[in-house]
C-alpha cells in the first residue's frame, strides 16, 4: 500500500447550419471502486496535520520559464497515512477512528463517469493525500473521488506554505484547488480560534463577481460539512451591509468570500473588521487576472494593505497573460511558484468544444441569432444556451426580443437586483431547455452544468474574456459549442484569438419571415429600453480598442445599431452623458 501512496502525481453572412455537430454517443465507464482501507490503514488527523506542512514535493519538472509543472509526487512518509500497529492505540480511539474510516471509505460505491469527463482528472484519489479526515468526508459527500489535474499539481505546494500562481483551463476544479488546502491550513491553526463566534478571519477569498462569490461559498460549505467549528461567509454588493455585519458577528467566519468593492466597504465601515482581517493567513484571488486588471487594481491594493504581510497568497485563473505574471508581485512573494496545467504550445481552450465565428451586419444579427437558436434547440432537446452580450442594457434588450419570439429565456446582468440574479442563476443551474441571456456577470467562473452552446454577440472586451465566456460550456471534460458573432467591422478581433481552433461557420441565409417577426417584436419594446441599450452600446464601443478612437466612424456604427433596433433616428442622449463619453463635440450625436 505504501508504494501506492508514493506513486507520482503524478463578410459573408454566415450561419452555422450543418456544422452544429450531432452529439456523439457517450461511452459509459465505471470508475474503479474505492479501495477499502478497513483494517489495513488508519488516517490520524493529528498525524496528518503535523506532516502536511512538511510534505515533500517531488517535482520532476518545475520549469518557471516554461511555466509548466509536469508531475508532482507525495512521498509516503508525508501522506499522513500510517500502517496501523497492533494494539498501539487505546481501544476507544481506535474505535472512533475505525468508525470515521468506515464512513469515509465505504468502498464499492459505483460512480459512473462519462469517458470525456475523465480528461480533466488525475489518477490520484483524494484519499491518497495528506488531508484531514473531516475534509475527506466532505469531499466524499460532494462526490469527488479523484483529484483534478490542477488540484493534484497545486495541493502539495500550497500545503508546503508556498505562494502559488496557478493557471488551468475553465471548468477543471480550481475552486476546490484553492479552498481545500486553505481549509487544511486553517484547521491546523491553534484551536483557540476555532469555534469562537467573533474569530479572526483566516482565509480571505476575493472574486470579481457576486455570482462567483456565492458559488465559491457553496463549494466551501460542502468541504466544511465535517468541520463544524469553521464557518464561511459571503460579503457581496447588492445586499444589505448591516445584514452582513450581523452575520459576521453572529456566526463563525474564519473564511470570508468577498467581492472587492463590498470588502472595502466593510474595511471602512464595519467596527472591528480591520482587526479581524489581521488574522488572514491565506489570501486567494480567484480570477486573478481580472482582479489585477485596471478595473479592480486600486481596490485590491487597498485591501492588501489592510492584510498582514506574513501570509500565503494564491492566484488562480484560466488565463494568465504575461502582464499578470509581471504584476503579481503586488500580491505575492517573489519566490512564488507558477503552476500551469495548460502545456506550453497547447490551446487555453478545450479540444472538445467546437469554436466557430460568423460575420453578420448588425441589422441581421437578431435574425441570425434566431436561426442559430432554433437549429440548436431542434438538435438537442436538453439544450442549455448562454447568449453573451456586450453590456447590461443590450442584454436586457436581446432577452426581451428573444422572449417576444417565444424562446424560453432568462436574463442576468448588473442592472437586476441581487435577489433576482441569485434566483435566475439558481434556476439556470438546475434547468435544461433554457436560454440565459447574460452580460459579463456570468463570463467568469460561474459553474452551470451541461451548457450545450455559448453564443457571444459582438466582440468581447479582450481575448481572455472570450476564453472565459466560452468556458461556460465544455466543463468537466464535457462537450460543447461556441459561436462568436461579429459585425464586419469587428473582424479584427479574430487576430487576438488566431491561435485558438476557431473556424468560420458555413454560410447560410436566415429565414426571410423571421426578420418581419423581429421587427414586430422590436416595435412593441418600450422606447426607453432601446434608448438605454443605445447609450450602453455607445459607451462600450466608445472605449473599445480598435473602434473607439475614430469618433466619426463611431457615429455611423451607432446609427447602424439604432437601426438594428428598428429606429429611424438614433436616440438623443443627455448632454452630460455625451460629455462624459468625450463625445459632446462629435458631430452626428443628438443631445438633449
Ligand atoms: N475532483 C473533482 N472531481 C469531480 N468534480 C470536481 C472535482 N473538483 C471540482 N469538481 C467540480 O467541477 C466543476 C468545475 O469546477 P470549478 O467551477 O471550480 O472550475 P474552474 O476551474 O474554477 O472553472 P472556471 O475557470 O470557469 O472558473 C464544479 O462543478 C466542481 O464542483
UniProtKB/TrEMBL annotation:
<dbReference type="GO" id="GO:0003724">
    <property type="term" value="F:RNA helicase activity"/>
</dbReference>
<comment type="similarity">
    <text>Belongs to the DEAD box helicase family.</text>
</comment>
<comment type="function">
    <text>RNA helicase.</text>
</comment>
<keyword id="KW-0378">Hydrolase</keyword>
<keyword id="KW-0694">RNA-binding</keyword>
<dbReference type="InterPro" id="IPR001650">
    <property type="entry name" value="Helicase_C-like"/>
</dbReference>
<keyword id="KW-0067">ATP-binding</keyword>
<feature type="compositionally biased region" description="Basic residues">
    <location>
        <begin position="20"/>
        <end position="29"/>
    </location>
</feature>
<dbReference type="InterPro" id="IPR027417">
    <property type="entry name" value="P-loop_NTPase"/>
</dbReference>
<dbReference type="GO" id="GO:0016787">
    <property type="term" value="F:hydrolase activity"/>
</dbReference>
<dbReference type="GO" id="GO:0003723">
    <property type="term" value="F:RNA binding"/>
</dbReference>
<dbReference type="Pfam" id="PF00271">
    <property type="entry name" value="Helicase_C"/>
</dbReference>
<dbReference type="InterPro" id="IPR011545">
    <property type="entry name" value="DEAD/DEAH_box_helicase_dom"/>
</dbReference>
<dbReference type="InterPro" id="IPR014014">
    <property type="entry name" value="RNA_helicase_DEAD_Q_motif"/>
</dbReference>
<keyword id="KW-0547">Nucleotide-binding</keyword>
<feature type="domain" description="Helicase C-terminal">
    <location>
        <begin position="368"/>
        <end position="519"/>
    </location>
</feature>
<dbReference type="GO" id="GO:0005524">
    <property type="term" value="F:ATP binding"/>
</dbReference>
<protein>
    <recommendedName>
        <fullName>ATP-dependent RNA helicase</fullName>
        <ecNumber>3.6.4.13</ecNumber>
    </recommendedName>
</protein>
<feature type="region of interest" description="Disordered">
    <location>
        <begin position="16"/>
        <end position="59"/>
    </location>
</feature>
<feature type="short sequence motif" description="Q motif">
    <location>
        <begin position="124"/>
        <end position="152"/>
    </location>
</feature>
<dbReference type="InterPro" id="IPR000629">
    <property type="entry name" value="RNA-helicase_DEAD-box_CS"/>
</dbReference>
<keyword id="KW-0347">Helicase</keyword>
<dbReference type="InterPro" id="IPR014001">
    <property type="entry name" value="Helicase_ATP-bd"/>
</dbReference>
<feature type="domain" description="Helicase ATP-binding">
    <location>
        <begin position="155"/>
        <end position="338"/>
    </location>
</feature>
<dbReference type="Pfam" id="PF00270">
    <property type="entry name" value="DEAD"/>
</dbReference>
<feature type="domain" description="DEAD-box RNA helicase Q">
    <location>
        <begin position="124"/>
        <end position="152"/>
    </location>
</feature>
Amino acid at each position: 500500500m505504501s508504494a501506492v501512496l508514493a506513486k507520482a502525481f503524478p463578410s459573408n453572412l454566415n450561419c452555422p447550419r450543418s456544422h452544429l455537430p450531432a452529439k456523439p454517443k457517450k461511452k459509459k465507464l465505471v470508475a474503479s471502486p474505492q479501495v477499502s482501507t478497513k483494517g489495513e490503514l488508519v488516517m490520524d488527523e493529528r498525524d496528518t496535520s503535523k506532516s502536511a506542512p512538511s510534505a515533500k514535493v517531488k517535482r520532476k519538472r518545475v520549469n518557471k520559464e516554461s511555466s509548466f509543472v509536469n508531475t508532482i509526487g507525495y512521498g509516503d512518509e508525508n501522506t499522513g497515512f500510517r500502517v496501523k500497529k497492533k494494539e498501539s492505540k487505546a481501544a476507544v480511539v481506535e474505535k472512533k477512528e475505525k468508525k470515521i474510516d468506515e464512513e469515509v471509505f465505504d468502498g464499492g460505491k459505483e460512480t459512473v463517469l462519462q469517458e470525456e469527463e475523465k480528461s480533466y482528472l488525475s489518477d490520484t484519489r483524494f484519499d491518497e493525500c495528506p488531508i484531514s479526515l473531516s475534509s475527506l468526508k466532505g469531499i466524499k459527500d460532494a462526490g469527488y473521488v479523484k483529484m483534478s489535474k490542477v488540484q493534484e499539481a497545486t495541493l502539495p505546494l500550497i500545503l508546503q506554505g508556498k505562494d502559488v500562481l496557478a493557471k488551468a483551463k475553465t471548468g477543471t476544479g480550481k475552486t476546490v484547488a484553492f479552498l481545500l488546502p486553505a481549509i487544511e491550513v486553517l484547521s491546523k491553526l491553534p484551536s483557540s480560534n476555532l469555534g469562537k463566534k467573533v474569530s479572526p478571519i483566516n482565509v480571505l477569498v476575493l472574486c470579481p463577481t457576486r455570482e462567483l462569490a456565492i458559488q465559491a461559498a457553496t463549494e466551501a460549505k460542502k468541504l466544511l460539512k465535517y468541520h463544524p467549528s469553521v464557518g464561511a461567509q459571503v460579503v457581496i454588493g447588492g445586499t444589505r451591509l448591516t445584514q452582513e455585519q450581523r452575520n459576521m458577528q453572529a456566526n463563525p467566519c474564519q473564511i470570508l468570500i468577498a467581492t472587492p468593492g463590498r470588502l472595502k466597504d466593510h474595511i471602512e465601515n464595519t467596527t472591528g473588521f480591520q482587526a479581524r482581517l489581521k488574522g488572514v493567513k491565506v489570501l486567494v484571488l480567484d480570477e486573478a487576472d481580472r482582479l489585477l486588471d485596471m478595473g479592480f487594481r486600486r481596490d485590491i491594493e487597498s485591501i492588501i494593505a489592510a492584510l498582514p504581510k506574513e501570509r500565503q497568497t494564491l492566484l488562480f485563473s484560466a488565463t494568465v497573460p504575461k502582464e499578470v505574471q509581471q504584476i503579481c508581485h503586488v500580491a505575492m512573494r517573489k519566490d512564488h511558484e507558477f503552476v500551469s496545467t495548460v502545456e506550453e504550445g497547447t490551446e487555453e481552450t478545450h479540444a472538445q468544444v467546437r469554436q466557430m465565428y460568423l460575420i453578420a451586419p448588425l441589422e441581421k444579427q437578431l435574425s441570425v441569432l434566431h436561426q442559430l437558436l432554433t437549429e440548436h434547440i431542434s438538435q438537442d432537446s436538453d439544450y442549455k444556451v448562454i447568449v453573451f452580450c456586450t453590456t447590461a442594457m443590450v442584454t436586457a434588450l436581446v432577452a426581451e426580443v428573444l422572449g417576444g419570439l417565444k424562446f424560453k429565456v432568462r436574463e442576468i446582468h448588473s442592472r437586476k437586483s441581487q435577489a433576482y440574479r441569485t434566483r435566475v442563476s439558481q434556476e439556470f443551474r438546475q434547468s435544461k431547455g433554457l436560454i440565459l441571456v447574460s452580460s459579463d456577470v456570468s463570463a467568469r467562473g460561474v459553474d452551470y452544468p451541461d451548457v450545450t452552446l455559448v453564443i457571444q454577440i459582438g466582440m468581447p472586451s479582450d481575448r481572455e474574456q472570450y476564453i472565459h465566456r466560452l468556458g461556460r460550456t465544455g466543463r468537466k471534460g464535457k462537450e460543447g459549442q461556441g459561436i462568436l458573432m461579429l459585425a464586419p467591422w469587428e473582424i479584427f478581433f479574430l487576430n487576438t484569438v488566431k491561435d485558438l481552433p476557431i473556424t468560420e461557420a458555413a454560410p447560410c441565409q436566415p429565414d426571410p419571415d423571421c426578420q418581419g417577426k423581429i421587427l414586430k417584436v422590436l416595435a412593441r419594446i418600450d422606447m426607453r429600453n432601446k434608448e438605454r441599450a443605445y447609450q450602453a452600446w455607445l459607451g462600450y464601443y466608445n472605449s473599445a480598442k480598435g473602434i473607439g478612437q475614430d469618433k466619426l466612424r463611431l457615429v455611423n456604427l451607432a446609427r447602424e445599431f439604432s437601426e438594428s433596433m428598428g429606429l429611424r433616428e438614433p436616440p438623443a442622449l443627455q448632454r452630460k452623458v455625451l460629455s462624459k463619453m468625450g463625445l459632446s463635440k462629435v458631430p452626428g450625436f443628438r443631445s438633449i
